[in-house]
Amino acid sequence: MADAPRLTKPEWERELETTLPLYGHRNWIVVADSAYPAQSKPGIETIVSGDGQLEVARKVADAINASRHVRANIYLDRELAFVSEKDAPGVTAYRAQLAQMFGSSAKELLHEEIIAKLDQVSQIFRVLIIKTELTIPYTTVFFELGCAYWPADAEDRMRKAMAAAGAK
Question: Are 145 and 71 in contact (CB under 8 A)?
Fold first, then answer.
């Protein structure tokens, strides 16, 4: 009996595995719906997954959580709470699954505010956008990476100590 063919990871998963070790504080990974535009900034790379959005978001979150060097602030579009089932069938189930996946850890901002953050950050730092097959508006999940081993409160204490010592 012949061995079953080996299934390889989808290209987007290989790209994530390659990119995540390079990324650090201030990089972003975006899991987008299918209508998310390809942006023209050189610091933004867009790839197409061919997979479902919740599946991709879960794999990205798991990869970040498994890394030793980064953690993520998660942002969702504030508009998502106001998208009706009548206008976008499946949005209610999607919101429930998203809440189950991220709970209250995700922050909500207006879509344009998040896009402005991406625009600003991509002038200096890289952004990876992974487009999915989802066709519901305002469903993009934004992962803003931060340092896993140096928390914000430690940074604040260090900066206060520097200020107290007269260091700039």
Answer: yes
